[in-house]
Write a structure and sequence with these properties.
Blueprint: H1 7-10, H2 16-22, H3 36-50, H4 68-82, H5 87-92, H6 94-109, E1 114-122, E2 125-127, H7 132-141, E3 152-156, E4 162-164, H8 167-170, H9 177-182, E5 185-187, E6 195-202, H10 205-210
Antiparallel strand pairs: 1-2, 1-3, 1-6, 3-4, 4-5
Helix pairs in contact: 4-6
Length: 219
């Protein structure tokens, strides 16, 4: 969207917490400087606000939550709640599953998690990719009943670490052995080799708006 390229256009529309992220202060230290994923996340927040999708506010934090104990706790919660689901169900119902476990994982980690939509770039290949123009057209006109959307979902922490519950099911050949075994991924995307996460929308407003968010009912 060309409007997003103009800071002057965005300043009166975006809340103060997001303006501080999108338009860094001159004296902002390198410790808090935006990484690749954070910059993409902030742009997706701005896009979601401009489209009236009401994404959650999230202040960035210069910390890391993915300690061995936190990763083990998250995986235990996922095993307990959705570990019985087949690979096909996890892949096809990834939007509803990701939305459903968000609250549970927030309670476990004691930190807000942002429902995040976009695509994944793996070794130069874009997976679950739809150009933003195509996604915006879906918001304008809707989609056919039963249509599948080429879009991925994951959760983002204030540290910009990600928890991905379904990549292993969608692309088993592209996921690592540990990811397939644990049926999830909990790490910071800027630290990954060969894979990057590319946010396009923040919050569940997009998938609710086009009608593809099926509520998780313990499939």
């Amino acid at each position: 969207m060309s409007r997003l390229e103009s800071p002057a256009y965005m300043r009166p529309l975006l809340p103060n917490w997001l303006r501080r992220l999108f338009i860094p202060e001159p004296n902002r230290t390198a410790q808090y400087a935006a990484g690749r994923y954070e910059a993409a996340f902030v742009a997706a927040q701005a896009r979601s606000i401009l489209w009236g999708l009401r994404p959650p506010a999230m202040e960035p934090l210069p910390v890391r939550y993915a300690s061995p104990s936190a990763i083990a706790a998250v995986r235990w919660q996922l095993h307990r709640s959705i570990g019985h689901l087949s690979e096909d169900v996890v892949a096809t119902q990834r939007f509803g599953i990701t939305a459903a476990v968000r609250t549970m994982l927030e309670a476990e980690l004691k930190v807000p998690l942002a429902f995040t939509l976009g695509y994944v770039r793996q070794n130069g290949q874009r997976l679950c990719y739809t150009p933003i123009e195509g996604l915006e057209q879906m918001l304008r006109t809707g989609i056919a009943q039963g249509a599948r959307v080429s879009l991925h979902a994951w959760l983002t922490l204030p540290s910009h670490e990600v928890i991905d519950l379904s990549f292993w099911a969608l692309f088993p050949d592209s996921s690592c052995a540990e990811e397939r075994e644990m049926r999830s991924l909990f790490t910071h995307p800027d630290q990954m080799l060969g894979r990057s996460y590319c946010p396009q929308w923040i919050g569940d407003g997009f998938v609710r708006g086009i009608g593809v968010l099926k509520e998780y009912e313990g499939w």
